Amino acid sequence: MGMMQNGDRPVWMIWLVILTGIAVRVFSVMNTPVINPDGMVYIQQAKAICQGNGQDLRSCVPFVSNYPFFIAAAYGIFASWIEAARCVSVFFGSLTLVPLYFMLRCFADTRTACLAVLLYGFIPFLVGGSADVIRDPVCWFFTVSALLLFVKQMGSQGTFWKRFGYQTSSYLLFLMAGWARPEAFIALIVSCLFSLLHSLFSRDKRYVLAPLASLLVLGFFVTAGTVIFDPYFSSYSNNASDKIATSIDHYRNLRQQLETLIESLSRGELMSFLSKVRSLVWLVALGVLVGNSVAGVFYPYIIFFVLGFFGLSETLRRDPRVNYLLMLVILGYVLLFVHVLQTWYFEHRFLHLIIFPACIFAAFGIEKTTRFITDKLRWRPSVAAIMIFLYLAAFGLGKNIKTRDVDKMVYLNIAEYISELEESGHRFIPVITGEASSLKLVSFYLNLHLPTGFCPLQTPPVITDNNSLVRYAVDNDMKYFLWDEQNWRRTQVDINSEDFRRSFNCLKRWYRKDYGDIVLFGRGSVVSN
Fold first, then answer.
1. Peptide bond into 300 cis (omega under 30)
2. Relative to the CA of 469, which of 215, 286, 420, 475 has its CA 20 to 30 Å away?
């Protein structure tokens, strides 16, 4: 299974699936009117890099990934921070399909590999991630490129220098992926251990030298990175080492909280339910992980992964490359399980840890589907490929061809409205907002034209009433206050009181479903136009 002959190479199909994946990503970028809140930090860091300001580089977050460096480089071409950041994301998100295809070709024929790449070209969180200003697409590209080289060296019986080159290049690419997102370091650790053990148990002991030499080179680069980027590397390593211990503490605390809640309840269905749940918290976390995995991969596509997973025993016995990728999938799930136990928070984009090593299961599932159509229905392989292509395209296009985050346009509208009230210039215009990160988009877009960056995630001190609000606005010379129903209803800030009206004028109102009414107020002489 999975080792079909190359046969003819339908070059047109390769170009078709890759260009289709690129087109879907470009469409998604063009139909995402407002960036995600995380993107504000990376653009601010890119500005600091261009200005050579090391202090502003870590003013918001303690780490600096390689993503802002790519944004800073792209800014020299596009002269727009948002366009530069989005082009970096869509470039790496689209480019990931190329090494993915070549890795799949190590296990399947051209037609099957193309269809598997098409499936990955339509997976929603991979498309959406390529349109967002996040570091994930950079991590995807370097991870898949590293996996490709590692898989190729395992299947290579070439000289020492050839295997050494493949392994060293793979490790360096894993380092680049880990620099983008630290979870990718788990693939680097597994690859180092697997390569060493595989070489030790191989018949030809000469190959042991290749992983040992590669590990020495890797150690040199890690040491250099620690010296140059510390405390950036230290922050990543400390967070990784504390994660398991922290998750265990969170698990125990949750059980204790459930026990306290049970004791406070009278007998009934809720008490009986919670008493059972307390002993099965780990199973609930597993359900969260499995449910989100199925939804993240996309329901119509999960069938190919399931089909490819079953019947692997023979392939696992004869192909160590499949063992390696399966090990990455399993350890990726373990890490995600620990994360869920710690935070009870999950986003589909976290699945990148397992989705790329699991690509062979999708290919095997597509291969089984093709064989079923050709053997049972007596149709030609080309007809089977067209059917699978249409199936993938129909669901993929239906899911991804849409405008994203239209409701966030309200923040861009507010920023544009304030800019119309202000005289053009290069001074920073602050806005008092609630704690929600999406509300910070107003200040971000309002001051995006400034050459120097600022931390968009800074929050004011606790504002509990009208007096503290007015005092904070006066002390910091802030003319605008953005009130929203969700955040400020929980405080004693009363926008209808006389003392509030003496300090602030109502300028304009908006509405967003998540936050309710949003009202912009101006202090002092600021009036609506």
1. no
2. 420
